[in-house]
Amino acid sequence: MSSVLLIGKETDTVRSIAQALAAGNCHFECASGGASAIRRLRQQAFDVVITDPETTIDEGLALSEEMRDIRPGMKAILLAPSSTPEEVIAALRARVFLCFSAPFDAHEIASFACRAANDSDWRTEIEVLSAQPDWVSLRANCHILTAERVVTFLGELHSELPDPTRDNVMLAFREILLSAMEHSAAFNRHKVVEVSAVRTERTIVFYVRDPGTGFRRETLAHAAAARAAGAPDAHLDQHTEMGMRPGGFGILLAQGVVDELIYSETGNEILMIKHTA
């Protein structure tokens, strides 16, 4: 049976995550701190470990490295009161499953933990091509869970942005990324997308390159963005028949959030630009 080890004293945050794990029918046990977690791992295997939300990312990384010496296949979800771009990059390079900084969404954390427990290919799903605080480039397998991990990591990388700006920008990026993975790769985990997140003094830029021929609006008969304005939902029946999400709505959503969407000639590369000043 898949299992999760939740580390932390009995605070409101830890109790909320425990309740969310129980609600998701995910088997879990609790450890009061790092030393207790190490003892537990020596006695039995856990698929996922969620670190103490009161410890830093650096402390979580050190603990997860020690725990992997005991259980190499263990996945780590790091929680911390705050994070810096340097810490997020370190977490990416260390191949942790995810990291979150406060304020925490207990249901989101529990959902990722339950799904992570059943994911056997996670180690090779995200590759860091290049990373520094103002420019991160990744290669990611075309899988929904991988896309959501990428979005979460890059959201943490831009944690200094005010809400709801960050939420809206990351939602738009998520839709573009999922459209690239689905419409060009049919969520084939053997295919990859390339992603870059660039922060300038006045803008945030996301670059996505999909493995196919792209999803230009003028060539996607099934996308909402390609439909006449009087029939914005006319593509839904065709999408249902194809077993696809309504990706055109994602393009429309992104257009409404960011300041510029720029496609390459073939349509398999896109720049999303959001002005922050």
Give a verbal description of the structure.
The protein has 277 residues and is of the alpha/beta class. Helix content is 39%, strand content 23%. It has nine helices and eleven strands. It is globular and about 55 Å long. The relative contact order is 0.10.
Sum up the structure in keywords:
single chain; alpha/beta; Rossmann fold; Heat Shock Protein 90; 6-stranded antiparallel beta sheet; 5-stranded parallel beta sheet
Looking at the structure, the CATH topology of the largest domain is Heat Shock Protein 90
By DSSP (H or I, 4+ residues per run), the number of helices equals 9
Structural class: alpha/beta
User: What does the main sheet amount to?
Assistant: 6 strands, antiparallel
Radius of gyration in whole Å, from Cα? 20 Å
List the uncertain runs.
219-244
Strand runs, count: 11
Instruction: Label the CATH architecture of the largest domain.
Output: 2-Layer Sandwich
Average pLDDT metric: 87
Strand content: 15-25%
Tally of structural domains: 2
The topology string of helices and strands comes to EHEHEHEHEHEEHHEEHHEE
* Quaternary class: single chain
Main β-sheet, spatial strand arrangement? 6-7-8-9-11-10
Helix content bin: 25-40%
Distance between the termini: 50 Å
